[in-house]
Amino acid sequence: MLNGLLLSRLSSLVVFTVAALAPYGLGTAPAQAQAEQANTEQFNADQLSTEKLTTEKLTTENLTTETTRTELLFRLPPPAPLIFAITPERRALLNTIRYAEGTWAGGDQIGYRIMFGGGLMPSLDRHPDRVIRKSGYASAAAGAYQFMPFTWSLASRTLGLAAFGPKVQDQAAIFLIQRRGALPLADQGLFTRHLAAKLAPEWASFPTLAGRSFYGQPVRRFNELRRFYEDNLAQLRGLEPVALVQKSSCEPADSLFCRVEALQRLP
């Protein structure tokens, strides 16, 4: 009888203890534990799904941005190549430079092979970079426009030129004209004293405003260069050479200054 009573009280105590601890997650029934496990797994799955979507969204945004940048990059026009157009006005000036530098050779392309002193370079693969001594001068100038090695290196690197052929030399010469700020004047189709003076520091055979070489070397007279330029430009334009009209606004006409000016206009 006593043993039965003790067993009954112990059983009640166990039931009470399990019921009391249930809210704290202890002694939970198997069904409730499974439900809570399922809830936990669903929560974790939702979290993973949210993180995945966020990651995919960021990646998509980045890809879209990069794609847009790439599309814009390819849609933009490519940078203009550093190649100058050869107009009749520019060609006439180039030919005048050759005439002044002694490489005109009647317009023959052999002028592109002339080195300082009149010798010919063996090929047009590169600038010869060879110092020649003649008539008390020493120079490594070469080509139709008598490029010095340093000047040629500057022009060829800037324009991305290769070899030393005629077309390449023409491009480099126009680059030097532009570099001296004379290209707008050249495009006007007029050979003026101001244009010649701008190019005098580049080509020693061109006269300054004072009529002398910028480097104290032999120089061509301005009127001689102007006549050559105008005749050459007329031929390039398909026109007959126009004789220069000698207009004199110099007064008084019998002054020494006017007489000197008149002499300079003579052939």
Summary keywords:
single chain; 267 residues; mainly alpha; Lysozyme; 2 domains; two-stranded antiparallel sheet; disordered N terminus
Structure, explained:
The protein is mostly helical and 267 residues long. The protein folds into two domains: 17-75; 88-264, Orthogonal Bundle (Lysozyme). The chain is 52% helix and 2% strand. It has helices spanning 2-21, 30-75, 88-101, 149-159, 166-179, 183-186, 193-199, 222-236, 256-264; strands spanning 132-134, 137-139. The protein has a two-stranded antiparallel ribbon with strand order 1-2. A hairpin with a 2-residue loop joins strand 1 (132-134) and strand 2. Mean pLDDT is 77; it is low at 1-7, 12-30, 57-68, 70-81 and 241-248.
Gap between N and C termini: 155 Å
For the report, how would you describe the main beta sheet?
Answer: 2 strands, antiparallel
Portion in strands: under 5%
- Could you say what the CATH architecture of the largest domain is? Orthogonal Bundle
Which strand order does the major sheet show?
1-2
DSSP helix fraction: 40-55%
Total helices: the number is 9
What do we call the CATH topology of the largest domain? Lysozyme
Q: What's the overall average pLDDT, rounded? A: 77
Number of strands: 2
Structural class: mainly alpha
- Assembly type of the chains comes to single chain
Number of domains: 2
Series of H and E elements? HHHEEHHHHHH
